[in-house]
Amino acid sequence: MPVRNYLMRLVRPSFLLILAVSSGIVAGVWSLVPADLVAPRPNDRHVTTVVTSLIRDQHLSKKPLDDVISERGLTSFIKSLDPMKMYFLQSDIDEFMRQKDKLDDMLANKDISFAYTIFNRFLQRIDERVKQIDELIEEEFDFTQNEFMVTDSDKLQYPANDQAARERWRLRIKYDLLVLKGDKMEERAARDKLHRRYQSFAKRMHQTDADELLEMYLTAFTSSYDPHTTYMSPSSLENFRILMRLNLEGIGAALQFEDGYTKVSKIIPGGAADKLGKLKPEDRIVGVGEGETGEIVDVVDMKLNDVVQLIRGRAGSTVRLKVIPAGATESQIYSITRAQIELKDSEAKGEVILQPAPGANGGDGTANQYKIGVISLPSFYMDMEGARDDARRRADDFKSTTRDVRKILEGFNQQGVDAVVLDLRRNGGGSLTEAINLTGLFIDRGPVVQVKGSDDRIQAYDDTEAGMVWNGPLVVLTSKFSASASEILAGAIQDYQRGLVIGDSATHGKGTVQSLLDLGSQLFRIPNPPNLGALKLTMQQFYRPGGDSTQKRGVVADVKLPSITDQMDVSEADLDFAMEFDQIPPARFRRLNMVSPEIVQELTTRSQARIAQCADFAKLNRNIDRYLEQKARKQVPLNEATFFAERAELDADKEDEKLLEEQNEGTDEVVKRDFYFNEILALTHDYVRLLQQQRIARAR
Fold first, then answer.
1. Mean pLDDT over the full length of the chain
2. What is the C-alpha separation between 341 and 355, in angstroms, rounded?
3. Which of 140, 332, 397, 695 has the smallest count of CB within 10 Å of its CB?
């Protein structure tokens, strides 16, 4: 389900760069096990040793690797493979669970062989299921029957036998056919699509390599300590580094995997593919060749990550793509010269909006216009390698969130804006250093965040630079997707009474700090050690200047606005094994008194009055009610009339999917000017006027 995919994105590293795999539970057939999945490799023993040692010695919780973690890890690994209980039989699970108290000892002895036992059984079950699935796809279905498909895996048992598994798949395929019919696909085309989807999934599972299996298995155990402690394979580590420095070398196209094909989902502006002008969204890449003469490798049904690795390469080199353009059947060959690509979607963007002064709710009725500077910030990015290099060179040209936002704010100052709106609604976090430095642009000096480690020592991290780049009215926009570093900034702004927090009832609630420990460096104390991946390890918990953690609670908005995202199960509290909220003594800092309970109450009253008169918000509130009603059902009707009647009102799954795609994909727009943002502008205007009135009252 879409929400689950988002939660898994938080638990395991996922990357916008070129990896947006289509969601859905699919199956297929493939008969060969890759040679490197026969047994664990020697390097796996080294990686397992250092991972277990680091967790034992440095994890914040101080929990031992014991039978509790052993059972959690085994359950998590099985769930990661078969989340909707479509493949394994109950007898498989019973067999696996007999080892539930032994895996901690196996890991301590560097033994991950049980991962191979489970995964190869998984491949066996996939092959068995796809034979049933191919038969079921061709059956006739009675869509007038009042049948249901359960969507909550916690309500399901694993199938007792092949017959029970077949029945579960019959309902799943019936559901898939209804979905495709709703997408206006003809029946024969829909059935062919399902055949290919399930077969493609099986092929990709059989292409799983040893690095990927090790990442899945170790992460199942590391995330049993807390959801953010994860093992990154070498390729995942490289993807993470690309994400943080916001650039890579390649063709400049976002790709996704869909039913066996690598499909172009977006062309990155200014990249090599954009300049060529031939490759378009929805085109399918079916072959990749290196250089002008290299053999073109067939990439149909190839794992997306492997396709990406073939396409990436040194700037200035050539790659040839065999492409079937959207809507066509014949392939074409495009020769593209790779180039350095800036991932602009993830960097800060600014825009000045002219907001007319209203004639009501405190407005003066004049034709005056307020200038509101809006900054969209999707992440807290920093080129860590560039920062280290520049420190050695005393240079200052690496990629940095704070540097980019400073330039935007300086531009706003020159244009004479009346207020700044900082949009963190889709900001899932990033560099702690950047969160501290960026907060410093809005306060003079003082603590931004307090951090407590496993030794219970508390350290405050301060903004040490005197002065503010922007000292006027500040509004911070948040949602349930605002996490980690976003919550550090929002929490500090709120504690200092520096600005107003508007959005969902609370932010995500991720109040722990992870360190990225390169395993090659841990094992080999040499320059340029081999890439063995990394452990993202929870070593600290952070706290606001006032002493509250954001863990599980998040940052509570001063003014709450209705939204569907506020109802989604995507917060820290929805994740397994999340650490608990707690408090420490407050740090010493000076509040700026730019927000008061009286101002918040007045703004809330005005906002609620506007929302009550807004037809768009009324429609949104109706959709929220329907969304909650559908979520509570835990099942989907397979009667065609009922199915489409419900979808005509609101499709909760589609709504989840749409919102999560918006989170991941980015946009060229700084803000989406809709009724929701218009209310934010109205609130910002009201806030500016109330601060002006407050200053006038003090002057008197």
1. 87
2. 35
3. 140
Which of 58, 67, 91, 244 shows the shortest CA–CA distance to 165?
91
Residues 6+ apart with CB under 8 A from 192: none
| Cα separation of the two ends of the chain | 59
pTM of the model: 0.81
DSSP state of 567: G
Are the C-beta atoms of residues 361 and 610 closer than 8 Å to each other?
A: yes
What is the rounded distance in angstroms from the CA atom of residue 453 to the CA atom of residue 60?
Answer: 6
**DSSP output for 580-633:** PP-B-PPPP-----S--HHHHHHHHHHHHHHHHT-HHHHHHHHHHHHHHHHHHH
Closest by CA position to 656, among listed 627, 618, 622, 629: 627
Question: Any catalytic annotation for residue 14?
Answer: no
Token representation of residue 667: 């946009």
The answer to whether 79 is a known catalytic residue is no
Spatial contact of 147 and 639, defined as CB atoms under 8 Å apart: yes
Q: Rounded to 5 degrees, what are φ and ψ at 625?
A: -60, -45
**In angstroms, rounded to a whole number, what is the distance separating the alpha carbons of residues 288 and 308?**
10
The two beta strands, 458-463 and 446-453, are antiparallel
What is the pLDDT at residue 363?
45
Helices then strands (H, E): number in the chain? 22, 21
Cβ-Cβ contacts under 8 Å for 46 (sequence gap 6 or more): 110, 523, 532
| 209 among known catalytic residues | no
Interval 290-338: pLDDT, tens: 999 999 999 988 888 889 889 988 889 999 999 999 888 788 999 999 9
Q: Which of 44, 463, 495, 548 is catalytic?
A: 495
Query: Which two tokens mark 558?
Result: 């001063």
Contact yes or no for 566/517 (Cβ under 8 A): no
pLDDT at 4: 34
**Rounded CA separation 662/308 (Å):** 22
Q: How far is CA 430 from the centre of its chain?
A: 12
- The residues pairing with 500 across neighbouring beta strands, listed in sequence order, are 475
Percent of the chain with pLDDT over 70: 86
Task: Answer for the pair 199, 29: CB distance below 8 angstroms, yes or no.
Answer: yes
Catalytic residue among 484, 486, 549, 571: 484
Give Cα separations from 60 to 54, 63, 108, 572, 580 (angstroms): 11, 8, 19, 17, 12
Catalytic residue among 510, 536, 552, 631: 510
Burial of residue 525 (CB within 10 Å: 0-12, 13-18, 19+) is: exposed
d(CA 199, CA 193): 10
Q: Average pLDDT for residues 21-27, to the nearest whole number?
A: 25
Residues 6 or more apart whose CB falls under 8 angstroms from that of 110 comprise 44, 45, 46, 48, 49
For 200-216, what is each residue's pLDDT tens digit? 999 999 999 999 999 99
**What confidence category does residue 241 fall into, taking pLDDT thresholds of 50, 70 and 90?**
confident
Name residue, tokens 């429609």. Answer: 619
* Separation between Cα atoms, residue 322 and residue 340, nearest integer Å: 22
Q: What is the set of domains in the chain, with CATH numbers?
A: 2-225 (no CATH), 247-342 (2.30.42.10), 346-513+540-699 (3.90.226.10)
Task: With beta carbons less than 8 A apart as the criterion, state whether 459 and 491 touch.
Answer: no
Structure confidence by residue, pLDDT tens digits, 526-541: 888 888 999 999 999 9
